[in-house]
Amino acid sequence: MSPDSLFDAKEQVRQAIDIVDLVGGYIQLSRQGRIYVGLCPWHDDTKPSLQVNPERQSFKCWVCDIGGDIFSFIMQMEGVAFPEALKMLAERAGIQLKPTQQRKTDGPAGSVDKQTLYRAMAWAESQYHECLLHAPEAEPARRYLQQRNIPTEIARQFHLGFSPEQRGWLLGRAEQAKQAGRTEFILKTLETIGLLARPEGGGSVYDRFRGRVLFSIRDVQGRPVGFGGRLLPDSGVTSPAKYINSPETPLFSKSNLLYGLDVARQSMRKSRTALVMEGYTDCIAAHQYGFGDAVAVLGTALGEGHIRILKRFADRIVLVLDGDEAGQRRANEVLELFVAQQVDLRILTLPEETDPCDFLQEHGAEAFADLLATKAVDALEHAFSAATRGVDLERDVHRSSQALERLVGIVAKAPRLRADTTREDRFREEKILQRLAASFRVPEKDVRDRLTVLRRASRRRAATVSAYAPSAYAPPANGPPVDGPPSDMPPMAEPDGSEPPERETIDPWQRELLELLVQHPELASAAREQINPQDLTTGRCGRIYGAICSLSESDVTPAFDRLMLQFDDAATKNLLVELDESDRVKGIADPEALLQELIKSYQKRRVDKQHPANVATLREEGLDESQKEKLFHKMLGELRARHGISGPTDG
Fold first, then answer.
1. Which of 224, 320, 596, 626 keeps 20 to 30 A from 410, CA to CA?
2. Measured on CA atoms in the order 314, 320, 324, 330, is the torsion positive or negative?
3. Contact assessment for residue 40 and residue 58, using Cβ atoms and an 8 Å cutoff
4. Which tens digits make up the pLDDT trace of 13-59?
5. pTM, rounded to two decimals
6. 558-593 burial by CB neighbour count: b if 16+ within 10 A, else e?
7. CATH annotation of 261-385
8. 220 to each of 77, 78, 165, 313, how far by Cα in Å?
9. How is the chain split into domains, by residue range?
10. What's the pLDDT tens digit per position in 336-363?
């Protein structure tokens, strides 16, 4: 998409969506004068701190310093970068982004675009859900949920459903709806999203989930993308699998989805903790007992994709495992995640081989909260306990060495420290090595040396493999070796596409100038004639002033809403809202006079900066007398102007 068409798309979406409606869909807002206020979702807010300005179409929480427009609100709430936020808002507004041709799916229905697939999945979810709540054939499913202590209100909250035992129930519903003009879904559409399946030997399609209670699986945006199905105990369907999930489809990838995230994410943002269960009913039970930050993996181990998603909402992740055997089996897996990801990953192994659902129903919420507080250990301690179970660390030297070797081998898989490694990662590795040395009662140097040996061996193996495949960062012929991205590449952005969150120290003069121009954009032309954009420090201030000058030069008034569309990163949008909301220049009687004062201050600052260099030039050899005299009179004129002295400078 070209810059012009991208700007047009942003402007079209901005005009189509009201920020009050958008924010109000996430939190409750109430009117307070000309603005709306609500409890901020990004900190533990007891008194409404989030302000929404309908006139400027902006929002701001002054407590946690987060603000912006509709795009940055979605970026912050959903943990996505700008392109995805634009896409989400365009879909909400019903706007087709260019290029108009949507990406086609690779499934059997190659001509079906993804929006049709999303609509088909949402339609199917509603059919299964209504069947569970009202259909006579779903009575066994309702009895099963009652036995599992899952009431109707929870079934509604989690969009539970039921697929009857008839082979063609869903397809029949689709054909009826199509004849009535309510849907356009056809067999291939439902087959593409995994709801219909075919026998291996060929034949007619059938409902994949027939005879099963269905757990709707939704993506980060809250859209249904797949199902988990539990076969009823008294079902007439013969199947070796008690639980099945949707197959991999254009919408569904179990390594990048978590059950219940659409329900849990608001609680996660407040607690900054995510409880990860291994089963759907475990997750539901946790919510019933007040643990609203619980989610579940989809029949697979917790992986890097899950960690990346959860880090958008939580700082601490607690993996709840069903007993000692499972905990021992997963020890190495979770330790690898711990060392590879910058996350506080903890493991709670439940006692007596119980699962979370059984434990909560038998012992209650208070006992479970006590386990979380006292028994959840970090991944390193968990892996150490699993590796040394039954090993006498004092006397069994061989098995102790084997256990240490396994654990150091896992740590060696983490990215090695380099010149650009963050301080947090360095500290993290230091602490891991210190703890391993202390736990096995060996010198820390020995552990560090062994880590170095294992990493060197790993690099040699990688080098052998890479000899057969060119690297993306391959050095030029006869050039020096390259270790990672080229040194002139810009620093990596934050996961949401914004700049690193460190707050810039802004020169007071620059801030006042930008406040004035953002609130009085009609002064941009006069400022541009006197103040060189290159004289503003680099960073967000420089980029904002550069955009103001560029728009002014193109005879476009750099109004606030126009400036907001010039930037995609959340940090710059946040600063623009600060400048726009500042009280320092609001209602000022003579903004032009203030601009002239700022220009004079700028000229004085410029003279002060240039004067030492001019003096040094005068003292240098090589200037003839006429050049020296010309430079001297220039310096004198600048100094006289600085002190407000008028008149000739040659006296």
1. 320
2. negative
3. no
4. 998 899 998 998 888 888 898 899 999 988 878 889 999 999 899 99
5. 0.61
6. bebebbbbbbbbbbbbbbbbbbbbbeebeeeeebee
7. 3.40.1360.10
8. 10, 7, 31, 11
9. 3-93, 114-252, 261-385, 388-462, 508-587, 589-651
10. 777 766 678 898 988 877 889 999 999 9
